[in-house]
Automatic annotation (TrEMBL):
Keyword Iron: yes
Keywords carried by this UniProt record: Cytoplasm, Heme, Iron, Metal-binding, Mitochondrion, Oxidoreductase, Oxygen transport, Transport
Domain Globin span(s) in chain numbering: 1-149
GO molecular function, one term: heme binding
Cited function: Monomeric globin with a bis-histidyl six-coordinate heme-iron atom through which it can bind dioxygen, carbon monoxide and nitric oxide. Could help transport oxygen and increase its availability to the metabolically active neuronal tissues, though its low quantity in tissues as well as its high affinity for dioxygen, which may limit its oxygen-releasing ability, argue against it. The ferrous/deoxygenated form exhibits a nitrite reductase activity and it could produce nitric oxide which in turn inhibits cellular respiration in response to hypoxia.
Protein's name according to its UniProt entry: Neuroglobin
Source species: Diceros bicornis minor
C-alpha cells in the first residue's frame, strides 16, 4: 500500500487538532446524518438517546469524541510507521465489533472525516490532501479490520 504524504497530513491536522472536540463533533454530527441507524449503538447506562443532538451533548459521548480524535492524532504522529499501531488498532477493531459496529460503517466514518476536514480547512483542503487522508484512513481501517477477522 502506498504511504500517504506525511507533510500534507501533518499540515492539515495542525489546524484541526487545536480544537479537537469542536471538530470531532462536526465529524459525528455528519456521521449521524449519513447513517442514523448508528445512534442506538451509543448507549450509556442503558439510556438510549432520543436524537443525535441529545447524543452529541452528553458527557459520555463527548468523551468518546475525544478518544476518536486521539486515535486520529496517533495515526498522524505515526503516519510514516503505521505498522507500529497495528496491534492497538486491531484491539480497537475488536472493541467496536463487540458493541455491534459493522466494519462497513467505517467507510461512512471515513466520509465524515473528510467532510470535517473540508469544513475546517475550506479551500486549503486540496485534492492532494484529500487523497492523502483517504489513504491514511484506509490504512487505519485495514488495521482495525483485523478485529473482525474470523467472522
Amino acid at each position: 500500500m502506498e504511504r500517504p504524504e506525511p507533510e500534507l497530513i501533518r499540515e492539515s491536522w495542525r489546524a484541526v487538532s487545536r480544537s479537537p472536540l469542536e471538530h470531532g463533533t462536526v465529524l459525528f454530527a455528519r456521521l449521524f446524518d449519513l447513517e442514523p441507524n448508528l445512534l442506538p449503538l451509543f448507549q450509556y447506562n442503558c439510556r438510549q438517546f432520543s436524537s443525535p443532538e441529545d447524543c452529541l451533548s452528553s458527557p459520555e459521548f463527548l468523551d468518546h469524541i475525544r478518544k476518536v480524535m486521539l486515535v486520529i492524532d496517533a495515526a498522524v504522529t505515526n503516519v510514516e510507521d503505521l505498522s507500529s499501531l497495528e496491534e492497538y488498532l486491531a484491539g480497537l477493531g475488536r472493541k467496536h465489533r463487540a458493541v455491534g459496529v459493522k466494519l462497513s460503517s467505517f467507510s461512512t466514518v471515513g466520509e465524515s472525516l473528510l467532510y470535517m476536514l473540508e469544513k475546517c480547512l475550506g479551500p486549503a483542503f486540496t485534492p492532494a490532501m484529500r487523497a492523502a487522508w483517504s489513504q491514511l484512513y484506509g490504512a487505519v481501517v485495514q488495521a482495525m479490520s483485523q478485529g473482525w477477522d474470523g467472522e
